Amino acid sequence: MFEGASNLAAGVDRSFILILAIAVFFTVGITAFMIWTVFKYNRKKNKPARQFTGSVTLEIIWTAIPLILVLVIFFYGWKNYAPMRKVPADAMQVTAIGRMWEWSFDYGNGKISKILVLPVDKAVKMNLHSVDVNHGFFIPAFRVKEDVIPSYNNYLWFIPKFKGEYDIFCSSYCGLQHSGMNTKTKVVDPADFTLWLDSLPATGNIPDAEGLTLLKNTGCIACHSLDGAKLVGPTFQAIYGKKHIVITDGKEIEIEVNDAYLISSILDPGKDIVKGFNKGMMQPYRDKLSDAQITLIIDYLKTLTGK
Ligand SMILES: [Cu+2]
Question: pLDDT tens digits for 271-302?
Fold first, then answer.
């Protein structure tokens, strides 16, 4: 019954079902008892109630039963949690890097991937690293989830038991596109894993174009998506050459997005307001970006053709 996709799944499921069973038993039991007493001890059919205080027997019963229950829950919880923090010495190491809003996986020697490929039946230790804010590394099928916190070396480990693809989520709200911070883990035969790792280019880092790094570091992507999603501001997808309506001095005009328009939109966002968006959300970047940086950003925006 309790076979999970990782070695740790069964323990988590057992503790969960134990707690759920206790909760259901008492919810149903107490509710049924209450309804029964309402009928059985109805005021109209019975003599007036007698008040009495103090009962050592009752006190002992309602202290002992919950105490035993919470100790049982603690025992099972601890028994199944403790192994999750004890990484086997032969575990393979992979670093999961969380950033707004994507995961990447560093296999060492400059090999970095956007999906997590793992050999089946081999213990893996995930070192959890964040470059910006708190994230949560969560693989539901494996029943593993840990916080990913800047400048704190958190980790988790597991053994994937079956080949297949499993979802990876971010479980900690980390900004506008938090819900899109998903990727996959692919569990494959050890031989296929070796082949895959050998063919992964050792780029040292997933190279972000300089313009993209600027967009990320300056915070533009908090308001502008690269993939077509409408956020606080219009998407950057296929922006270059696009014709659209802007409101300039209260009049609607159609413009074509070119270098001059982009420069003016970055330096003086209040001048032309894209129709359907609000004035005053975007601050002018006049003193914050150099001309050279703006050129890099525009060069990058030209590459977002959106095909
Ligand atoms: Cu996140």
Answer: 999 999 988 889 999 888 999 899 989 988 98
Task: Tell me what the mean pLDDT of segment 5-32 comes to.
Answer: 94
CA of 258 to the centre of ligand 1 (A): 33
Structurally, how many domains does the chain consist of? 3
CA distance 80 to 215: 44
- Rounded to the nearest whole angstrom, what is the distance from the C-alpha of residue 94 to the centroid of ligand 1? 18
272: β partners: 248
Asked whether residue 265 carries a pLDDT value surpassing 60, the answer given is yes
Do both 226 and 179 map to the same domain? Answer: no
How many Cβ atoms are within 10 Å of 142's Cβ, its own excluded?
23
With a cut of 90, say whether residue 145 has pLDDT above it.
yes
Does the pTM surpass 0.85? The reply is no
Do residues 221 and 293 share a domain? yes
Domain that holds residue 122: 92-199
pLDDT higher at 45 or 73: 73
Phi-psi region of 108 (alpha: psi -120 to 50; beta: other; left: phi over 0): left
Report the alpha-carbon distance of residue 200 to residue 193 in Å, rounded.
Answer: 11
Ligand 1 center from residue 114 Cα (angstroms): 14
C-alpha 135 – ligand 1 centre gap (Å): 4
* Ligand 1: centre distance to CA 96 (Å): 12
What's the CA gap between 257 and 248, in Å, rounded?
14
Phi, psi (degrees; rounded to nearest 5) at 253: -130, 155
Distance between Cα 208 and ligand 1 center (Å):
19
DSSP calls for 160-194: B-S-EEEEEEE-S--STTGGG--EEEEEE-HHHHH
The dihedral built from the CA positions of residue 210, 216, 219 and 225, taken in this order, carries a sign that is positive
Cα(142) to centroid(ligand 1), Å: 19
